[in-house]
Amino acid sequence: MKKTLILYTVLFISFCAKAQDIKNLYFISGHPYDNTDEEFASYLWRYSESSLDTISLLSSKDDFLENVKVYPEQNLAVIHKSNSIRKKHLGHNHRLLFIDYQDSVRFSEVPIKIEEGKFEYYLSLTEESLLLDMFSNKKGSYFNKVDLENLNIKEADIKDFIHAKLTGIPGGMIDGKDYFLVYSNEQNGNLEIPLVGDRDERPRFSYALPEQYQFKSYQRHVIPINNSKIFVLHGKYEKASPKLGSSEIIYLNKENNSWNKVTIQGNMQKPRGFGEWISGYVFNDHIAGKNLPGAEKWTYRESGLSPKERWDYYPEYGEGNYPYAPGILYFYNAYTKEYFELETNQADSEVILIKDNTVIYRTYDELYAAEIIKGQKLGKSKLLLKDDRVPDIHWAFFGVK
């Protein structure tokens, strides 16, 4: 009887902890997207019993939302906004908004002075700084960094970028991204970051591809994920239209310093990194004109973009002929090599957070939570929210308060 009582007590405490976690769940909505005629406001929301409480307006309709990046390992989110001219990004009034949620949710904003220019930003894995890859019509390319302790800006060394944290590619067919395009050296497997034109001057990652994973020619590749646990590179892919095709993920397990690869469905991976988890949605950009599952639910929305407008990112296919996503989310643990999928039957689906075996994912206008069971599958999904604001949500984090 005593053992049973202890067991129920433990289960109750565990349940309360999970409930508390869900109460501390925050979402960011926004549209880093070029191919529209108008802007939409971006917000920070807090989940509260099947509803969303507004915490802060992050960017207004008068701003151009350039990018959003959330770093769960560092309890930090960084938002880039400006008054840039659409599609040119050579405007003015560039600002970085920092959301620190280590102890409580705190906001800081830093102006980035750059005349008729643009920049990309990357969190450093080795120091408390944000790296800025900058370009202006007057100065050309140059490199700065923001000290996260005092938010001062100073010059960065080009070699600092080999320590850039990369979180991957969010879903929802938006422009927000966090990855590097690199070149692989066909002779030694070195991965060169083309920040400058001279190959001899380019910074190289300290991780060189082993011989069995090296490419036979000097090629460009995507590195979508680099965090404290894994380093990920896009490998070979098979278009295979009208089928989904397949693609390789080559990765370094930093815990045991071993290289491996996994093959997934779809010729494009769209992965995001959450610790040792690699997750994304199955996608093929060479299948056009096939009906997208769940598209009949997509409606015009005054508060944000309809998925139909976002899928117009591929205009070369012609009106209504979009690339194909079957509504399948994939999960791969780079440490255990366990792989599983979730069929959502909704093309507009994405995994937006994995934290302590809790998965938060979105299917069009619905948000769900599910637990990873023994690292091998998802448990029963719980509907958190069905709301007209949900299609705009592409990022999440667990806060303290």
- For the biggest β-sheet, the strand order reads 11-10-9-8-12
Q: Give the DSSP E fraction (strand runs of 2 or more residues).
A: 35-45%
Percent of residues in helices comes to: under 10%
The Cα radius of gyration reads 21 Å
Low-confidence stretches: 1-20
Question: How would the global form be characterised?
Answer: globular
Structural class: mainly beta
Q: How many runs of DSSP E, i.e. beta strands?
A: 29
What's the rounded overall pLDDT mean? 88
Please give the alpha-carbon distance between the first and last residues: 37 Å
* Biggest sheet overview: 5 strands, antiparallel
Tally of helical runs:
2
Signal peptide: 1-19
Keywords: Signal
What do you see in this structure?
By secondary structure, this protein is mainly beta. The chain has two helices and 29 strands. The strands form seven sheets. The protein has a five-stranded antiparallel beta sheet with strand order 11-10-9-8-12, with no helix packed on it. Strands 24, 25, 26, 27 and 28 form a five-stranded antiparallel beta sheet that branches. A four-stranded antiparallel beta sheet has the order 3-2-1-29. The radius of gyration is 21 Å and the shape is globular. The N terminus is likely disordered. Keywords: Signal.
